Amino acid sequence: MAANRSQNGIQLLFAAEQEAQQIVNAARTAKQTKLKQAKEEAEKEIAQFRAQVEADFQRKVAESSGDSGANVKRLEQETDAKIIHLKTEASRISPDVVSILLRHVTTVKN
Questions:
Q1: Burial group, residue 16, by CB count within 10 angstroms (0-12, 13-18, 19+)
Q2: Is residue 81 within 8 Å of residue 88, measured between CB atoms?
Q3: What is the DSSP-derived secondary structure letter of residue 92?
Q4: CA 59 to mean position of chain CA atoms
Q5: What angle do the packed helices 2-66 and 68-106 form, to 10 degrees?
Q6: pTM across the whole model
Q7: Sign of the alpha-carbon dihedral angle for 17, 21, 27, 31
Q8: Under a CB-based contact definition with an 8 Å cutoff, are residues 64 and 71 in contact?
Q9: Nearest 5°: phi and psi at 87?
Q10: Tens-digit pLDDT profile for the chain (110 aa)?
């Protein structure tokens, strides 16, 4: 009877080990499936992002190179406007700067 009990105990342990192995295998398979799915989704997102960035780049290239003559003209106008502004400001504050410089140069300190 003791041999029968130990045989039943061994069979029970063997069955439990097999069940545990099945659970581990099922978990491993599920993990691999999830990883594969996550990888595929990540690749799709990367492809979408690349396509979006490429489209933005192509749009910017088309905008900047399509009207290069217009861009040059616009830049020349902006530059001329800035030069005029600087000259105006310089002529406006020039007398003040000259008087400040003369005052500091001609002031004698002991």
A1: exposed
A2: no
A3: H
A4: 19
A5: 80
A6: 0.45
A7: positive
A8: yes
A9: -65, -40
A10: 666 777 888 899 999 999 999 999 999 999 999 999 999 999 999 999 999 999 999 888 877 776 667 778 888 999 999 999 999 999 999 999 899 988 888 887 76
